[in-house]
Design brief:
By secondary structure, the protein is of the alpha/beta class. The chain has six helices and twelve strands. Pfam families: CoA_trans (PF01144).
Length: 236
């Protein structure tokens, strides 16, 4: 009899997976598609000295920002962290380590890790501080920097829909770093908005195959936040 991938809540979905000093990939872009419920369970666990790979660090009090508040994150591997005052304060005081990446380079490092590619060359960052201490080569008259693939102990992702076998569908902008991260860790746990039975998802619509996803948790409520709301002024 197959073991169910569906867990009753985020705490049980992460049971036995968390430990001090581990590396976690966390999906999302800004506040869109972030695994907020799983992040909350990590906070409640008290695990610390974490290295977190994520495009950004959320905002103060939301997303990964809650793990910064409790100082559970030791190092961030990120692309953009400009919306988080807590992050800035901890970084400038030397409490938090940061490994900055150009956004496309970060995406490719994660994709490469999931594909089993240990390193690759990119022109992005050559001749800048990004390239310091890294191998460089020239191909066809252009200079490139060697970047290594990223692979984590745990990936936490947010999906719009899943079946109980772990096949995932992401919706619109939430299809950002989540699909790549789901492939690039020893264990992937997904929180999902809608959970259906096998066969109810068109195979052509599946973005992350269930073979990558070991545990699922169905969300009872989803808070879809807007990081920066921009609206037109009402006409007189």
């Amino acid at each position: 009899m197959a073991v169910s991938k569906v867990y009753p809540n985020a705490t049980t979905a992460l049971s036995g997976l968390l430990r001090d000093g581990m590396t976690i990939m966390s999906g999302g872009f800004g506040l869109c598609g972030i695994p907020e419920t799983l992040i909350g369970a990590i906070r409640e666990s008290g695990v610390k000295d974490l290295t977190v790979i994520s495009n950004n660090a959320g905002i103060d009090g939301v997303g990964l920002g809650v793990l910064l508040e409790t100082r559970q994150i030791r190092k961030m591997i990120s692309s953009y962290v400009g919306e988080n005052a807590t992050f800035a304060k901890q970084y400038l005081s030397g409490e938090l380590e940061i490994e900055f990446n150009p956004q496309g380079t970060l995406a490719e490092r994660i994709r490469a890790g999931g594909a089993g590619i240990p390193a690759f060359f990119t022109a992005t960052g050559y001749g800048t501080a990004i390239a310091e201490g890294k191998e460089t080569r020239e191909f066809n008259g252009r200079h490139y920097v060697m970047e290594t693939g990223l692979f984590a102990d745990l990936a936490i992702v947010h999906a719009y829909k899943a079946d109980t076998e772990g096949n995932l569908i992401y919706r619109k902008t939430a299809r950002n770093f989540n699909p790549m991260m789901a492939t690039a860790a020893k264990m992937t746990v997904a929180e999902v908005e809608h959970l259906v039975e096998p066969g109810e998802i068109d195979p052509d619509h599946i973005i992350t195959p269930g073979i990558f996803v070991k545990r699922l948790v169905k969300l009872d409520h989803v808070e879809k936040r807007i990081e920066q709301r921009t609206v037109r002024k009402k006409e007189a």
